[in-house]
Amino acid sequence: MSVYGEARKVTTHTLLEMKRAGEKITMLTAYDYSLAKLVDQAGVDVILVGDSASNVMAGQATTVPMTLEHMIYHAQCVERAVDRALLVVDMPFGTYQGNSRQALDSAIRIMKEASGHAVKLEGGAEIVESVQRILTAGIPVMGHLGLTPQSIYKFGTYSVRAKEEEEAKKLIADAQLLEEAGCFAIVLEKIPRELAERVSKAIGIPTIGIGAGPGVDGQVLVLHDLLGITMDFSPRFLRRYMNLAEGIDQAIKSYCTDVRSGSFPNEDESYAS
Question: Count of CB atoms within 10 A of residue 268's CB?
Answer without folding.
Answer: 5
